[in-house]
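Archive entry. Fields below.
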Amino acid sequence: MGRRAGFLLPGLPQLLRGRVLGGGFALFLWLGLLTLAVTRFDRVRGALLGDLDDWIALLTLAMVLGGVWLWSFRAGRRSMVTGRGSGEGSPGALGQGWRAFRRNRMALLGLGTICLFYLAMLLTPFLAPFEPEFREAYEVGGDMTRRLAAPSSVHLMGTDEFSQDILSRILYGSRISLTIGLLAVGISVTLGTFLGAIAGYWGGLVDTAIMRLVDMVMAFPRLVLLIVIVALFPTTIFIVIVALAFTQWPSTARMVRGEILALKEREFCEAARALGFSRGRILFRHLLPNALGPLIVVATLGIGNTIVLEAGLSFLGLGVQAGTPSWGSMVSDGRDYLMDAWWVATFPGFAIVLAVLAFNLVGDGLRDALDPRQSEGARR
Amino acid sequence: MLSFSLRRTLLAIPLLLGVATLVFFVLSLAPGDAASIYLRPGMTPETLEHIRRSMGLDDPLLIRYGRWLLAFLQGDFGYSHFYQMPVRDRILAALPNTLILASGALFFAFLIGILVGVLQAVKEGSFLDSVLSGVTLFFYSMPSFWLALMLILFFSLSAMKLWNWPFSFPVSGIQSPGADLLAPWDQFRDRIHHLVLPTLTLTLILAGGVARYVRTSMLDVIRQDYIRTARAKGLPETRVIMKHGLRNGLIPVVTLFGVYFPFLLSGTVLIEYVFAWPGMGQLMVESILRKDLPVVLAGTFLFGGMVVLGNLLADLLYGVVDPRIRQSDG
Amino acid sequence: MRRSLSLLSLVALSITACVGESGDGPGAGLGDTFCGPALARVDSFMATFAGEEPTGGRYGGMVVVGTVADMHGMSPRAAGDVGSAQHQQFVNLMTLIEADESFDPMPYLATSWEVSEDRTELTFRLREDVYWHDGELTTAQDVAFTYLTVINPASEYPNPGFFQHYLPGEEGVEVVDSFTVKFHFQPHADILESWRGLAILPHHLLGDVPTEELSTHPYGAVCPVGNGPFRFVSRAPGESWTFQANPAFPEALGGRPYLDRYVYRVIPTQTTLLAELITKGVDVYVQMLPNHAATAREETGLTVLSFPYPAIFFVAWNSRVPELSDVRVRRALTLGTNRRQIIEGVQGGEAVLLNSGVPPVHWAFDPSLGDSLPYDPEQARSLLIAAGWVDRDEDGIRENLDGEPLVIELIYNQNRERQQVGEIMRVQLRDIGVELRPRVMEFGAYMSQITSEERDFEGAFVTFETGFRLDDRDLFHSDAVDGLWAFAGIMDPELDRYLDTLQLIPDRVEALPVWRAYQNRLLQLQPYTFLYSALRRDGVNERLQDVVMDPRGDWATIRQWWIAPQDRKTP
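PREDICTED_STRUCTURE:
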């Protein structure tokens, strides 16, 4: 029964067994994407001849549809074999964490939201009702009243002063906002982990040097440095990302150093040393994996903060080049219309809040699951 | 402990100079001529040359740097070409405004944050806890400038036009024009009135972070053995929480205060921008855009100094509230 | 809890400390040696009028004007920014002459003037009852001092070109007696126009200051002492300037202004400024955004005054760049830009389309010119084909014979209007196969790029506040092609001839045909794509009466503004 149901509709076997959240999400995702593929069939077909964005979207669509189905199918079959859905996976720290995380409803909701956001980002070419720069009013013979049009069935979130569709721009803007967060945090966490681990493990002069550098960057008023870099130098997305990353790594470095210092004293490390493993091997194979939990938490919470920070820069009129949609710049552009066209600034603002909220929910959930004692630092 | 902290603080001075040096070179190497900001149609090259000279831009970079460093070490922050006044005076005009705004917001944020956090920890797992968690996280996730704009819409415009509230809060500035003609008490009230919206914005956003932190650290304590012992002894719950829980649970919050301390100067940038609050944040943004190098350098030094001071403060406070540290370190 | 209590008292303490501090004014402690005594003298002179001032009726009340940017102040250097220039002319200082509604010269500080027969001398006769706010009389000495200061590049005065025909140095000016001053120059067209913009400075306060130090002297931004209708009271940098009515202002010029107080407030976010206007926190919102004007018009108790302003907005094409050296390409760019639609979209229709650098408020403006070069993508396309630009690889962008695409970078500084126009032009020009790449730059870098010798740009948005005295030689004359302002870098003997002639014909009727010919030649050469001259919009609270806004400036009529007693509010 479960097998057949899984074959027919992904998520159904889980739903039937009472796992409402997972099954419901799978079902919702699968049906939603299927609907999208059918209603926008011409675009999906057109994507075969399209550019890289279209291909990515196509690939995403196919993989998610197939993936969800496969997952549901296999989960259904396994449950038939074993009778129970659990018992899979390694009992390692991360595996235990995931099980703890799965019990946290709010965190799962956040994770789902994040998945949807990124999915929407990847599928933008199929999802967006309009091109991001489709300016109805300024096309030949255009109608100027299409500018600052209130939300309607055509433009779900209204239009801005160029008559561009806000919903489409939020979708296209997610590329910048979500990517900037991910990349900047990726770079900063990598850099911070590397330096922090070296400082913590080697100690001595290396430690002192790295920690002085950390102090120096920490003493830097972050927003000031960002404004200097972004305002005075020709801005590209690359510069914004690098600037964000290079002002963020010290907190990671500090945390990793502390973790390593603590782990260094533990038995398993002594054992590894006794076995004559090289320093590099001990550090990267034994110590760092054990510090992974708090790292993931820091990274997740960091993405949210970075999105807010980028929005702040854009709000000051800095940040990514004008014309390229990003949530922050959309709020900034829309604030002049706050009183006569509230939708221009409001919806991108909601997008920011929602995305950051989701990341923070997941971060909280991860912290509770992986590392209940980890306390959070301050923002900014 | 004290000597360690002092040593760290002394070490911080070259560090801060390093930070300012970096800013000096980054700003000086930015494309474009700082003097060209003052170019106006019809100006002659000779005039431009004079502007450059009076801004001290006609010397090579290293000489300019040496001159700045020498003056800076003697306590001379230089001259702001944009505001046409010594940097010291310009900063002294902005500093109190930011301090008032930020200290008020910090105070309320810690007050509300601690209250909410403790309440949540005591009622862990209850409906109230979930709701408060959601609310604090919501504000914690919100871009401050966005909240500021929304508050202006609600508390000033809508309050006045849609709902006919008998009052609305001023949306910009630190006082009403002409407030200097009022009686001292009314002047004071006028200032408080102007503080409401910006302080509210900052408080809402900060309190979320504080509450989350307090909740975690209180929960840590409540799960400890001695609390259980106290409960087992049959002490009333409020007493357990107030006497044993709060005391130990709030210790880490002291470090949080150290972390938030630099915020007194540098945390209000975007809020000042929206509420036309003539403080350090607005000054710094304006000066960076005008390439008013001496102001930016002095500001950076001050901001950085606050971070160092904050660390020192955290160290010291921690020693005060938690004697164990003092002993083990001393 | 005890700790938090002490924190609270700390906050309260710092608030009260600041309240106490504001009483001294920010001038206290700044430039003590100069400002302290100077402002003290102002106070004691003003105290002599106590009780004598007219009261009742229209006299009294306070007005707050809100803008997005702080003023530089009253030094000659500051005259480059619009707010400061107007405060120098109309509020704190005085000019020799002012303009009436039809822009004809009117006596102000000067009662009369005389141009010699051969047009080489100009004699001003000054009022004898104008006092500096510290009690000193304004004399011919002040005028001569001001003139000598501003022609010295060290003063950083932005418009030395006003006096380029004058005899060099001290030969150009002659103090005849205490209230008569005479200037010597080569004959030229607009003799009086320059004197409308130049505010006279106090010689008795600044005479000893070396000109090089004037731009850093506290007089300009910390404690200006003027002679105009309003005296300086205090300034909180980045926040506000406060002025008070000058009771000593000459009766013949209207005497003491009606307003007791006038405050210039800085509110950097325009949305906040609009909110302040609506909630009656400010009385005037200077230079409104078009959509804010629409919002304010719907509010009760507010009016929006829109008026033409002598400013022009254009795209300068750098003809030194190979693609743009071809006049056909530049013409095609203009023809391919739907400027009427831009005016509609960006300015809400409130702008005048331009085809030359003569703004609509100038007497030589030719309205018929606006119909030239209308939006014509078809013609633009054929011009581009004729110039050798054809879309050879069918990607929508034209290429030349070498296969290089027609890509033009357009630079501008961060500014909503420019960003909007740039984005619209990009869409429009793509239609004729040109790829326009708008690029935002920081203001200093942008200015450097368009004025430096390298001229490392292709197209640039430029806004010029032209004023009423037009002299385009530094823009288009061959002699100035290496100067700061020759963005386009065109050299054309015919244009040179017109430009030279225009500066020498005093008679407007005689000059008009030359202006026409000049503008037609510009039309042919298309060094710029002229866009428009936008109306300036000021939102005004209706409690403020007799506010007239016209091209002379937002503050030109501030002496007449008044508030009925029942509308005055105590702050």
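CURATOR_NOTE: Residues 2-30+77-329 of chain B form a domain with the MetI-like fold fold (CATH 1.10.3720.10).
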